[in-house]
Amino acid sequence: xxxxxxxxxxxxxxxxxxxxxxxxxxLNAQTATIQEKYFQVKTKKFLPENQYIMxxxxxxxxxxxxxxxxxxxxxxxxxxxxxxxxxxxALSFQLSDFKKVISTTDKYYIxxxxxxxxxxxLYSLSLFKLKEFDKSIVWAKKLLSKFETxxxxxxxxxxxxxxxxxxxxxxxxxxAFALNNSANTLLTLTNIQYYYTSDKDNSKESLENYISQxxxxxxLCIQLLSFYEQExxxxxxxxxxxxxxxxxxxKNNKEILERTRGLLVRYISQKNLNEAIIFxxxxxxxxxxxxxxxxxxxxxxxxxxxxxxxxxxxxxxxxLAQIAILEFELASDKKIVIPEVIAKFDKALGGGINKAMxxxxxxxxxxxxxxxxxxxxxxxxxxxKQEPKNLAYLDTLAWGEYKSKNCKKAYDxxxxxxxxxxxxxxxIKQHWDKIxxxxx
Length: 440
Fold this sequence. Notes:
By secondary structure, the protein is mainly α. The protein has a domain of 163 residues: Tetratricopeptide repeat domain (Serine Threonine Protein Phosphatase 5, Tetratricopeptide repeat), CATH 1.25.40.10. The protein has 24 helices and no strands. The protein is elongated, with a radius of gyration of 33 Å. The N terminus is likely disordered.
């Protein structure tokens, strides 16, 4: 369920809590209010006012917020202008000095001034942050009675969410949604409906209608997909994902398109891996997702071709190391390809790739084919520093010690491996038999 934090963030933006502006922020933005006239606070002249403002703004720019807020408090005390008090309170909130927000507001609060809405919102939010939930609700209600906006309705709804009064929370979010028709408000509203008020059908219907009328807003679609997933409605999941994919493709929204494609392939794969592969091939998507699928169905030839394409496209040495592995595994005469395979590993590892699996693979080739047993042992030692309990790497080490005629050391290593993994793997069994013979 979306956290109350997003409303704090929204409020922070509304109150100019970032404090990084280079000009005086307009703290009296237009807002829906039932008041027609504000109480006029009598102000005082303060000759160095402009200089104080400049210093305060510079402190904000330099992110010295404590210094800035003290200047704003001084400005307020000398001028009686509540826009300065509001800046002081906003910066105190940003600094998580919620008690200061409460005490200062208690001291200076006046009803019906222009800044009242922002003051009340900061006050109720500070109570909320101090976990005084009942009081925060009381003050949020007062705020709402004076200023019925969607933001204030959501704020009170959020407080009720924290208090687990989901019926009231839902009511306020519904009222907010009636005012703003916002996707973000609907996101929270439908979440409450689905998970907390047992109104699952209306929750899904609201999302479906909104998406139908306003387009495939990604967060709403994901919410709806999560509801379908809860109910294991595979047909609706695939239908929505296909529509999202076509929509984002048409709009050329690449980032969201990639995310959606990943989800779509995942769901297609659950039923039929080959169907997922055909989908990506038809869409001419040559990426890691397709590579993973080729590996899953053991289509090494296509994986090898794709790796070569990806390496030429990106010059990513990780792909080169993977090419070396498949080149060796696909070769009918492995001895012929070994020099080229080793060269590829050398380039990848020499270029900064430091993955244990590649170090171990090269180590095993060097050891098993008696090319450079000492280097092989050095490489597998590096791999084991990264993954000291990896049985495959320990097997390489044991085989290297055997090839170096260190039969006792090889036996001790291999005995632990056999105890842990058994003898079902043919390679482990062969190594164990050879090492046992070596110790006789």
